[in-house]
Amino acid sequence: SWFVPRRAGQVSGNIIAPDSPEDWERRDGGKWLHFFQVQDLTVSGGGVIDGRGQEWWAQACKGRHRNDKHCTAPEAPKALHFEECHGVRVQGVTLQNGQQQHLTFTRCSNARASFLRVASPESSPGTDG
Q1: Cβ atoms within 10 A of the Cβ of 107, count?
Q2: DSSP 76
Q3: Strand pairing partners for 105?
Q4: How many CA atoms are closer than 13 Å to the CA of 60, on its beta-carbon side?
Q5: pLDDT, tens digit (0-9, with 9 covering 90-100), for 85-121
Q6: Which of 8, 44, 88, 99 could form an S-S bond across to 56 if both were Cys, CB 3.0 to 4.6 Å?
């Protein structure tokens, strides 16, 4: 988790997650790029945020294990998550292969997402939108 007071971030290249769920064992499994109580942050640019979710999808309870009542797959991280933020803007970036959700805002005010490209294979469990 990051606490970033009043900033702008430019994503010009690629931000790439670790590719294996085992790489997340000592972390908070539900978070990857997590911003908490940030004000007036703009994330923009032509870059890519790649969650590398393929190995997560193979284990997902809502994927091929959908009917397994005893599924114990680890909680997949949200790729880009803003929590209790104000005045956040996300624009002009590509979000792809999110482990779970690509972009989430939780208890945020005055948040805006625009000119985004969201891409994952049709077979990924999080492509319901």
Answers
A1: 9
A2: P
A3: 82
A4: 20
A5: 999 999 999 999 988 889 999 999 999 999 999 998 8
A6: 99
Query: Which stretches within the chain are classed as H helix?
Result: 54-59
Residue of 43, 50, 49, 51 whose CA lies nearest to 114? 43
How is residue 66 written in tokens?
Answer: 């959908």
The rounded Cα 123 to chain-centroid distance in angstroms is 18
- pTM score over 0.70: yes
Q: Are strands 42-44 and 89-91 parallel, antiparallel or unpaired?
A: parallel
- Evaluate whether 40 touches 85 at the Cβ level (below 8 Å): no
> Which CA distances in Å does 116 have to 8, 23, 67, 83, 98?
17, 28, 33, 19, 14
| CB 44 within 8 Å of CB 7 | no
Per-domain boundaries in the chain: 10-17+31-61+73-119
